Amino acid sequence: MTLIWGGLSLGAIYAIVAIGYNIVFISSKTFNFAHAQLTMVGAFVAYTGLVTWDLPVLVVVLMAAAAVAVIAAIEERIAIRPVGDMHNILVTTLGASILLDGIAQLTWGTQPLTVPFFAGDEAFTLLGGRAYPVELFLIAMAVLIVVALGIYSRRSLTGLALLGMAEDREAALLRGVNVRRMAFMAFVAAGALAGFVGMFVGSKTFAVSTLGAALALKGFVVLAIGGFGSMPGTLVGGTLVGLAEAYASRYLGGEYANLAVFLILITILMVRPAGLFVRTKERVV
Amino acid sequence: MQLARRLAGGPLWIVPLALGILLILVPYFNLEYSIVRQLQLAMILSLLVSGLNLSLGFAGELALGQVAMYAAGAYTAGLLSKNGHTDILLQLAAAGLAALLVGVLTGIPGLRLGSWSLAMTSFFLVLLLPDVIAIFKEDTGGRNGLTGILSPTMFGRMLTPEDYFMVIAVVTVAWFAVMRNIAVSRHGTALRVLKQSPVLAASMGINVFRMKLMAYALGAVPAGLAGALFASLDLYISPEAFGFTVATTILAASVLGGSASVYGAVFGAFVLQFGLNQSTDFQKYSLVVTGAFLIIGGVLLTGGLSGLARALWRKLAAGQPAAAPADRSDPDASAGDEVPAVPGKVLKVEGVAKAFGGNQALKGVDLTATPGRVTALIGPNGSGKTTLLNMICGFYRTDAGVIALDERQLQRMGPDQVARTGVARTFQTPNIPEGITVREAVMAGRYAGHRATVLEAVLRLPRYRKVRKGDLAEADRVLDLVGIRHLEDAEATALPLGQRRLLEVARCLIGNPGVLLLDETASGLDEDEVERLAEVIRRVRDAGGTVVLVEHNFQLVLSLADEIVALAHGELMAKGTPEEIQNNERVMSEYLGIDPDAPASPHVVLADVLTDGAQDGVGR
Amino acid sequence: MSTDSPGNAADELLLEVRGLGTGYGDLRVVWDVSFDVRAGEITVLLGRNGAGKTTTIRAISGLNKIVAGEVRYRGESLAKVPAHQRVRQGIAYVQEGKRVFHSQTIEQNLLLGGYTRKLKRAELRTEVERIYELFPILAEKRALPASSMSGGQQQMLAIGQALMAQPRLLMLDEPSGGLAPVIVNEVMERVHQLKETGIGILLVEQAVEASFAIADHVTVLDMGRTMLSSPASEVSDMTLLQDAYFGKTAG
Questions:
Q1: Touching check for C245 and chain B: CB below 8 Å?
Q2: What's the whole-number average pLDDT of chain B?
Q3: A64-68, A125-129, C65-69: range with lowest mean pLDDT
């Protein structure tokens, strides 16, 4: 059970990254390579706020969310909006992710930094396994975000507009939705979310400049499993990836963890390339 | 400018070849050690970049796993050497194969989905690399690196450092010759078509998945070669040499040099190796610089520096206008030519039905198009014409019914297979690949029907030459047929709309299609162009071709069609000769919303307004 | 609908299109189109396939760029107004092909139609109820996804969705397209009712006969140019339109 808690909380992190990919994907059909790096920056900012400046948790969380939202806004303006070609967006957002990696390295160094968790790091026993507070918190948060986004998108007018935009951009525009602005806002919101969760992710994994790359890949695998655009899919994918990683490193050895995740990715791509929760649509010529 | 023009007149490969020979002879120039080493590393880097270009620049798929193939090649060669197999040729062959294997194995799943999945799958390889090396620690040395690599030999003779430099240079030059021969061949054109539009590629009979896999996996080979060369350069390799930084450097060099070019790889690699990597500051800021560069490069330099250079070159060399719009050809020049027989086939559509969700787009449609006749398909918007066309071409699956070309049933085939069976089509918006001439664009229509393998193309073997000769001759023929031969050296995308449509028709005709599907080919054309098009269609028909015409221009339909099939609400509404259709009341009311029994009254007569107006419009 | 329909003065000149030129990228489809739409009137745009009718509407709604000429709405030029802003100003466009949001329910579709209204949830509901009164069939199916409805019902929904934005100018692109003749008549009847509320309507149709019956003004396009613009009462002789479409000279 200890293993399960560990795996699930890891999976929750990946799911949260995948949710960020999804928000951007739904609103603008693009893939933000740098989203995981945004989460990483959130973790670093949280470290600075909590450890270096010794600020209260609530302030730090808001600070991180705001800071990363601003970075996301800048990224959208310089690395996404001016790019005409979809192929090039892959290159530019990858560039943004590398740039963030580099800035993080210069600012915070290459050593892993411990981000304290507000509810302490005393492990306790739950359902026959040892678990840390931050682990349960992460799991709860992933589920909560998915549920909240589900309700929001079905209930609020903005949510409906977003979904409408995902389905038919032109039709949404003709209903008076400012689709460009909406896509921009969604991008920034995804950034704010990444900044917000950064503190808790950092508590579990350390804040380290290689975090981005690892999260990006695992987040992508989660997305591939659940299917692009599917929010509930991220939870299933996260669970699968987190557990696979935990079990592989426990029973086969640490160097098998990534390999296990990679095998899942390959299998999904071969068997159900659109993911488990997305029905393949016939392409339109 | 004179010089530029004269140079442009000669074979262009002379310049790179000369530079290549110069590179091979470097050991005789007594250069400083550090420069020699930088040269070697730059050559190795340019191999890696070139492999990425094949995938990113030509097939349009971003791959980040070049480093993994590089490592696969290096470790293969290193282990061989450690076990006593020191012959560099053997190592190169084995390393190339190992890398190819990695490419195929990761390309198959990675290419199943859209572009992100290959980027991520291959990126994952970079992350996996240290793990895999650690798993085989006993052989690979794990994190400590692989030691004990022996000095390379060739045919049993030990290679001096000078010899080894020449080996690297020869391999590099040889690879770029291969790359150049791929790029400047029908395969290169096919890749450009693919990058422009997978739909277009499939409709020309190109298997999209296989083509992309070919480019990606083939791009692994130079990476493997580079790995083998690297292993014997330092006689030591460790996971650190194959990290994330190398992966991004490769990408940066590719973008810098222009990923869609052949020699841009060399340029990008040399700039990065000699320029940026020199400064120690760069090490510290490398990620920041690379990242910023990728953003800027992605936004601004679509063609890379080589793209800029080429544009400049064209300006210099082009004393004569690039795409001579010329006199509108002379339509009669070719009119007298005999059109060789076009072996049309019978296209039969029986009871075809298709639903999208709850919307029944087609409810059992029959249609027969026979050789030597033009069959027109008309109907109001949303009546199912385009759906039917897409089903014939294999882009949609049928829910029920049979589609057959002569005896072969098409309804279960993919679009590329349908195309190879003999169905050729044009698109409502002409789909023309960038960066190729009109002649090449037309020749691409023969790609699937007349095959020559990549190897035959690389070595320019007799079969490739024969096919190429056929391509050229046929291109001349069909360009004459549609009357735009005088434009054959113009950049295809520079043509105005009317000529682009004629180009599409030519591209279809070059494959001697069993049936030619024209999807609103006349829309947006002026009167002369419509006339030209009609003439082309008549000739194809008279030569025995089967033509299916989906068209809004009713005048054109009436003047061309032997039979008209009218659809409404996904069903067959009427079928018959132009005269029958013109007098069919149902067609009148459904298609045009005219009730023939409506009362007539004087004032303004719409009919006169329309016909007069039409002539006015043309006159302008 | 009648009470709070926008304060269009009767006969107010809503839309003036003068010498419009537009197209897709470098493909110019419309060269010289001119016509008016007045409040409380229906202007029907006729012409064969490819004449430039849809492209004209797309330019008015802001989807295509105006390359030449002028489009004025309530006296102001639209050239610099972005598409979503035009909806706010009261220009609603129902595209051909019943482009509702298939994955959303009927009610969600209607709510989204009121996106520009900035109303409280409860007020928006009241507006939705009004649409249900207009199209009772939508009320019956309010909780079902739009994809489950028939073509005619989807057309009703598309119109209802556009009305939620409380337009002064409603542009309908082939509302009868792909519908059975009986339903076409029903749609036309609805459109006729709408004009009674004071909305100005621009109707693109291929169903000449049916749309003629409700037209106040007729504009005929061919090859991207206005061939005729005239009050409906002065236009007749439908039989000859057939020859125009098919071209007497051909064959």
A1: yes
A2: 81
A3: A125-129
Distance from CA of C211 to the nearest CA of A (A): 24
Residue C249 touches chain B, beta carbons under 8 Å: yes
| Lookup: tokens for C232 | 């409906």
Query: Whole-angstrom Cα distance, residue B271 to residue B265?
Result: 10
CA B382/CA B170 separation, integer angstroms: 61
Given a cut of 50, is residue A24 above it in pLDDT?
yes
Determine the 3-state secondary structure of B470 from DSSP: helix
Counting Cβ atoms within 10 Å, is residue C18 exposed (0-12), middle (13-18) or buried (19+)?
A: middle
B104 contacts chain A (CB < 8 A): no
Cβ-based neighbours of C44, under 8 Å, separated by 6 or more: C203, C204, C205, C211, C212, C214, C215, C217, C218, C219, C232
Q: Which domains does chain B have, with CATH numbers?
A: 12-243 (no CATH), 347-432+511-616 (3.40.50.300)
CB-closest option in B130, B287, B396 to A98: B287
Predicted pLDDT at B304: 60
pTM: 0.80
Residue A285 has pLDDT above 50, yes or no: no
Summarize the confidence of residues B163-183 as an average pLDDT. Answer: 92
Q: Which parts of B422-562 fold into alpha helices (H)?
A: 438-443, 454-458, 462-482, 497-509, 527-542, 554-560
DSSP label at residue B598? S
Nearest alpha-carbon partner for B219 in B12, B67, B79, B74: B67
Separation of first and last alpha carbons in chain B = 41
So what's the pLDDT on residue B6? 52
Q: Considering only CA atoms, which of B374, B363, B375, B380 is closest in space to residue B588? A: B380
What residues form DSSP beta bridges with C219? C45, C229
- Enumerate the residues of chain C whose CB falls inside 8 A of the CB of residue B591: 206
Nearest chain A Cα to C166, which residue? A175
Taking the alpha carbons at both ends of chain A, their separation in whole angstroms is 50
Q: Higher confidence at residue B362 or residue A145?
A: A145
Q: What is the pLDDT of residues C112-132, one digit of tens each?
A: 999 998 888 888 999 999 999
Which residues are A125's β-sheet partners? Answer: A130
C-alpha C24/C-alpha B523 separation (Å) is 13
Nearest to C1 by CA among C215, C159, C212: C159
Say what the pLDDT of residue B29 is.
83
Query: Which of B363, B603, B610 to mutate against chain C (most C CBs within 10 Å)?
Result: B610
Residue with tokens 């054309």: B525
- Give Cα B94 to chain centroid, integer Å: 30
Handedness of CA C71, C73, C77, C81 (dihedral sign): negative
Confidence bin at B315 (pLDDT 50/70/90): low
The residue extents of the domains of chain A are 2-217
Cα-flanking dihedrals φ and ψ of residue C236, to 5°? -155, -155
Q: Which two tokens stand for residue B492?
A: 């295809």
